[in-house]
Structures are given as C-alpha cells and as structure tokens.
Design goal:
Blueprint: H1 2-25, H2 28-36, H3 41-60, H4 65-88, H5 93-113
Length: 124
C-alpha cells in the first residue's frame, strides 16, 4: 500500500500543480472556463492557490504521511466542489471526467492514509 500511496500522491501533485499554476498564470483555457461557468476571475486565482497548496501537501506527504491524508482530504473537497460546478452548468461527462477522476483518486488516497490523519500537526 505504501508504493500505491506514493504513486497516487505524485500523480495528484503533478495534476494539481499543472491545473493550479495554469489558473494562477491566467491561461486562456482557464479564463474561458471560469467565464463559461459564470464565476469571477478572482475565484480562478483562489482556486489555483488552493490546488497548489494541495499539491504541496502531496509532496510533503511522501515523507510525512499525515500530510498526504490532509492533502487528499483538501483536494478531495476541492474536486467535489469542481464536480458540483460542472453539474450546475450541465457540462458533459467528457468535460466532467477529469475532475471526477481526481476526486476518486483523492478519496482512495485519503482512505489509504486516513489513520495518519490524526498525526497531522495540531491534531496530536
């Protein structure tokens, strides 16, 4: 399970690093998506920052498993809200698939690491 967990952490870190940095950089695709969804552009920046924080937690979690659990929960909630946005604007399954997949990966990782969540700084 350790190897699977680290693989999923690296996968999530890479995916959310790309997505978060694209949102913060103001890539045309992300700007257009937030317009299509009827969300303000400042929310795009906030979302990008949230995703980068989650990616950083995944990277720290390679050495400190409690961070992986916390990061998986953080990214899972972020992904779930993303799914709700896609559902609200009636996006197709194809448009919603990636965020749904990231939610599932986050959930699987959280359930692998949930016992370590109690060791997250400030909880012990």
């Amino acid at each position: 399970m350790q190897a699977l967990s680290i693989f999923l952490q690296i996968l999530l870190a890479l995916m959310f690093l790309m997505a978060g940095s694209g949102k913060l950089a103001g890539s045309k695709m992300h700007v257009e998506m937030f317009k299509q969804w009827g969300l303000p552009q400042w929310f795009r920046s906030v979302t990008g920052l949230v995703e980068l924080i989650g990616a950083a937690a995944m990277i720290i979690g390679i050495w400190e498993p409690s961070w992986a659990a916390a990061g998986a929960l953080w990214l899972g909630i972020t992904s779930f809200v993303g799914i709700l946005v896609h559902v609200r604007v009636k996006d197709t399954f194809k448009q919603t698939f990636m965020i749904l997949l990231l939610f599932i990966i986050s959930a699987v990782l959280f359930f692998i690491r949930y016992e370590q969540f109690a060791n997250f700084p400030g909880f012990a």
